[in-house]
Amino acid sequence: MPALSKPKYEAYAKLLAQGIAQAVAYAEAGFKGGRSSASRLATNENIVARVAELRAQADAPAGTEDRPQGRPSGYMPEYAEQAAKLCLLGATDDEMADFFGIHRATLYRWKLDHEDFCDAIKSAKAHADERVERSLYQKATGYEVTEEQAIKIKVAQHEEEVEVVQVRKHIPADTTAAIFWLKNRRKDDWRDKTEVEHRHTFADMSDDELDKELEQAVSGKEGQTAH
After folding, report:
1. Which residues are paired to 148 by β-bridges?
2. Which long-range contacts (CB under 8 A, 24 or more apart) does 17-20 make?
3. N or C: which end of the chain has fewer CB within 10 A?
4. CA–CA dist 81, 85 (Å, integer)
């Protein structure tokens, strides 16, 4: 992929590819903000793809940068259906990239450039997640299954036959699955420990909370100055 169109984004991606910490790279690239802002930008798909590409180039043996590797990276319409099937089987982005014979950065680029490809992946992943969710719910609440079981039937005084019959079996609820479900669906009632609602020291605050406090302090000071 070409260099990012925004110079600051390109500079930030290059610094991240070199292993520079997000906050440091963010400042050196010319941005203003805290660690939370740097972290958010680092998740931008263009940044992620560019960093992955730069790292791949750095890891490539000398003289092999321009050699084609694996399957050609050109996108084809049928890839959308193939990607969807892979996602339904639980494939990750890395596994899909390996299937298509491309770098993960190219997979991200395909998502950005081809809406049908991106939508197919999102839809299939959502469907797979729903299947897992239903399975987890069944395990948490218990369910019934029908199994085949072999039984011996006496047909004569010294003669028996084996007959296969279907037996309805109840699978009891799994406590671990139930706790996991409740901790995620009813966090307020099932969290491990009660969190302190009011924090009195900056040391206890997260980056986002510190940024919010700073914004409120600045806006409050500006309001006082205006009066």
Report:
1. 166
2. 17/50, 17/51, 17/54, 17/55, 17/58
3. C
4. 6
d(CA 126, CA 119): 11
* Separation CA 42–CA 163 (nearest Å): 63
- Per-residue pLDDT, averaged over 17-39, amounts to 83
Q: What is the C-alpha separation between 11 and 18, in angstroms, rounded?
A: 11
Distances 18 to 54, 59, 129, 223 between C-alpha atoms, Å = 9, 11, 35, 43
Cα 148 from chain centre: 39
Please report, to the nearest 10 degrees, the dihedral formed by the alpha carbons of residues 53, 57, 59, 63 taken in order.
160
Q: Report H helices in the chain.
A: 7-17, 22-28, 35-42, 45-59, 79-88, 93-100, 104-113, 115-141, 175-185, 187-190, 207-226
Provide the pLDDT confidence category of residue 108 given band limits of 50, 70 and 90.
Answer: confident
Task: Give the separation between CA 81 and CA 71, rounded to whole angstroms.
Answer: 18
Which has the closest alpha carbon to 71: 105, 102, 97, 96? 102
- Give the mean model confidence (pLDDT) for residues 211-215: 69
% pLDDT > 70, the chain: 77
- Give the whole-angstrom CA distance, residue 170 versus residue 141: 11
Angstrom CA distances, 221 to 49, 54, 87, 214, stand at 41, 44, 51, 11
Q: What tens digit of pLDDT does each residue of 129-168 get?
A: 998 988 989 888 998 989 888 888 877 777 888 888 888 9
| Nearest in space to 46 (alpha carbons), one of 93, 103, 3 | 3
